[in-house]
Design goal:
The protein has about 550 residues and is α/β, with parallel strands linked by helices. Helix content is about 50%, strand content about 5%. The chain is built from 23 helices and eight strands. The longest helix is centred in the first third of the chain and has 27 residues.
């Protein structure tokens, strides 16, 4: 098929080329700390757009793909420029542009979050809350998704009218000795949890270890462990915000909850980190090992804080460790047995009864003072000090103004499954327990299913050995593994004998999952070839969830 090709001596006359050129210039200015100039340059780049890419051109497959790339590039530059302008305190001037961008892309979470911040800073809190409702409606109806945890935290901050959202001081450019301007580093931490309660002892331990000025001791790591629903992520975020001033070269947040055991997804996550650090994707190497080396090189002479959330294995954490002696890492890991051999480990316990009530009061707000104290006490007893359960209960009452704490307590007594499935943000107790169960080895699953039998709430080691299928392995080693992944508890008797049990809420969630409900992807032991002993499987299906 014939055609014509237009060749231009001057690429400057092509707006797409000029847009890319200005974008690169703006990002280079940003990396040198020139925020004001970067904002102006990125605005100039965006001003070249008049409508959509190739809007009047009949496109084939290749042109269509290029058009999509241009549009995505435009959104990325818009997001970066809006972020810069908000840091410079120009929320009033941005409102119209942010509103237009969100109307054009009603499922774009970054635009929604930026618009919420700008509206809140302008004193338009109801409009900021309405922006979140609009985003959620589009996400649920069009994609079947809830807003991200970060957007939901921002929503809670706006609801609570947190002061730190109201104003943005002009961005400051720090200067190193000799007058060299420092490059602003990434600041990826999710919003701090405004209603955080307790953990002062654990926070003090973490800050003492990570915050001390001891660069000669090498890069420091703290791993945070604990049972499902105990609030490991919220603890890590709170600690990271308190430590921010000590890590001026940046703070990275790496969410591994959706990353499997393969290297490719982890490589994508690490590539995104390097992009946030100012290294363009096209200049990055291929392969996880090469990306890890580049990341260690970039951090070698910097002070960077890295938060790794929901790591599955020690190798995942190791792949994203920075290289500088002035850097630090906070990693949450539900599998203590899969942890690194270096650094410190902090195990989070359940909240005390007093802390549980305080958290309930903060989440429920004004209405908590109107409730029957006895009913609230009962609800907190059912939640067993797990922040995820407490937030879910308080959130349900907040969303149902006509309900009382007594009514909800009655509902939960009659239907314990309801507490397991109540959402707190994007999670529930049953989904977080499912995530822990999903990656257990087959032999550990078999033993865990045995421990769920109704007639034995606590097991001695000899009882486990007697009931365990021959050839499965050493019972004590398997029990210790389940204790390390926080699905089983140890109890020491006055005679110094160890007993083993599955915590009540964890037990109920596992039974619900093993019955094959849609809440998790754990197979039913009666039908899946998971190696569950026949007697244990039958007893498990008949187990009483009310225990």
């Amino acid at each position: 098929m014939g055609g014509y090709e237009l060749r231009l001596d001057d690429k400057e006359s092509v707006d797409a080329y000029r847009f890319d050129q200005l974008t690169e210039q703006g990002m280079a200015q940003l990396r040198t700390g020139a925020g004001e100039e970067a904002a102006r340059t990125l605005k100039a780049a965006l001003s070249l757009w008049k409508g959509g890419a190739l809007v009047d051109v009949s496109t084939g497959r290749r042109l269509s793909a290029w058009s999509t790339q241009l549009e995505e590039r435009r959104k990325s530059v818009q997001e970066q420029r809006f972020s810069l302008e908000l840091e410079l305190g120009r929320h009033h001037a941005l409102l119209d542009e942010l509103s237009e961008a969100f109307r054009a892309h009603p499922t774009h979470e970054a635009f929604a979050g930026q618009l919420m911040r700008a509206l809140h800073r302008c004193g338009r809190r109801p409009d900021a809350l309405n922006t979140f409702r609009t985003l959620r409606t589009h996400l649920v109806e069009e994609l079947g998704l809830e807003p991200s945890a970060q957007l939901q935290r921002l929503h809670q901050e706006v609801l609570a009218d947190r002061g730190h959202l109201r104003g943005a001081a002009p961005a400051k450019t720090e200067t190193a000795p000799g007058g060299r301007r420092l490059v602003p580093g990434p600041a990826q931490l999710p919003a701090d949890v405004g209603d955080f309660v307790g953990r002062e002892r654990e926070l003090g331990q973490l800050e003492t270890f990570l915050g001390a000025d001891r660069p000669s001791t090498g890069m420091r790591v703290v791993e945070v462990h604990g049972p499902p629903g105990v609030g490991k992520s919220a603890f890590a975020v709170r600690a990271a915000h308190r430590l921010r001033p000590r890590f001026p070269d940046g703070q990275l947040f790496i969410d591994l909850s959706a990353v499997g055991e393969g290297s490719q997804q982890l490589a994508d996550v690490l590539s995104a980190c390097l992009t946030a650090c100012g290294i363009q994707r096209e200049k990055q190497p291929a392969g996880l090992d090469e990306l890890s080396r580049l990341f260690r090189t970039w951090t070698a002479d910097r002070r960077v804080l890295v938060v790794v959330d929901d790591a599955l294995t020690a190798s995942q954490i190791r792949a994203v460790l920075p290289g500088g002696s002035g850097c630090a890492v906070i990693a949450t890991n539900r599998y203590r047995v899969h942890s690194l051999s270096i650094g410190r480990k902090i195990v989070l316990p359940a909240l005390s009864h007093e802390e549980s009530l305080k958290l309930y009061d903060r989440v429920a707000g004004e209405r908590s003072r109107q409730e029957d104290p006895a009913a609230v006490q009962e609800l907190m007893g059912l939640c067993e000090g797990l922040p995820l359960a407490i937030r879910a209960v308080a959130g349900r009452l907040t969303a149902r103004p006509g309900w009382s704490a007594a009514r909800l307590a009655l509902r939960l007594r009659g239907n314990p499954r309801m507490l397991l499935e109540l959402p707190a943000g994007t999670q529930s107790l049953v989904t977080t327990v499912a995530a822990s169960h999903r990656h257990l080895p087959a032999r550990s699953r078999e033993l865990l299913h045995l421990l769920l039998q109704r007639e034995r709430p606590r097991w001695r080691l000899d009882e486990v050995v007697a009931r365990l299928r021959p050839g499965i392995g050493d019972a004590e080693t398997l029990l210790e593994y389940l204790v390390d992944v926080h699905l089983v508890q140890e109890h020491l008797t006055p005679d110094a004998e160890l007993l083993y049990s599955v915590p009540r809420l964890t037990r109920q969630a596992l039974i619900l999952l093993l019955r094959g409900t849609p809440a998790g992807d754990v197979p039913n032991p009666r039908t899946a070839g998971a190696g569950v002993a026949g007697g244990a499987g039958v007893t498990l299906v008949k187990a009483d969830i009310r225990r």
